[in-house]
Design a protein that fits this description.
Layout (H helix, E strand, L loop, with lengths): L1 H7 L12 H11 L5 H17 L1 H5 L9 H11 L10 H9 L14
Helix pairs in contact: 2-3, 3-5, 3-6
C-alpha cells in the first residue's frame, strides 16, 4: 500500500466510521485538522446549498421511484442514510459545493 500511496502522492487518513466517513475525510482536507466541527459544519451547509441551488443537473440521476432529491440528501446529511439513489451523488454534489475535484480510491488486494 505504501508504494501505491507514494506513486499517487497521497497519504491515508483515518476518519470516524459513523456513516459519514466521506464527509469527515473531506472536512479533514478542508481544514487539515482531524474532525474539526467547524469544517464539518461548513461542508454540510455547502452541500445543502449546492443541492438546493443547482438541483436540476442532479435530478437526472434520480428515478421517480427513489424519492425527492432534497429529501434523500437530507437523509444522508442528518440521518446517516447513504444507501439510496442520492448516496452516489453526494461526492459530485460535494465537489461542486467546495469547488474542488474529489478523487475516490478503493483498496483491493493491497493496492488501489
Amino acid at each position: 500500500m505504501d508504494d501505491v500511496t507514494k506513486s499517487l502522492n497521497v497519504t491515508l487518513a483515518y476518519t470516524l466510521a459513523d456513516g459519514r466517513c466521506f464527509l469527515h475525510a473531506v472536512a479533514l482536507q478542508l481544514n487539515e485538522t482531524p474532525n474539526t466541527m467547524q469544517a464539518y459544519e461548513f461542508l454540510m451547509k455547502a452541500i445543502e446549498t449546492e443541492n438546493t441551488t443547482n438541483k436540476n443537473p442532479y435530478r437526472n440521476f434520480i428515478d421517480e421511484n427513489s424519492g425527492r432529491l432534497d429529501l434523500l440528501v437530507h437523509k444522508y446529511l442528518h440521518n446517516k442514510i447513504f444507501d439510496h439513489a442520492a448516496g452516489d451523488l453526494i461526492p459530485q454534489i460535494t465537489s461542486n459545493a467546495i469547488g474542488r475535484p474529489i478523487h475516490i480510491y478503493s483498496e483491493r488486494d493491497g493496492g488501489i
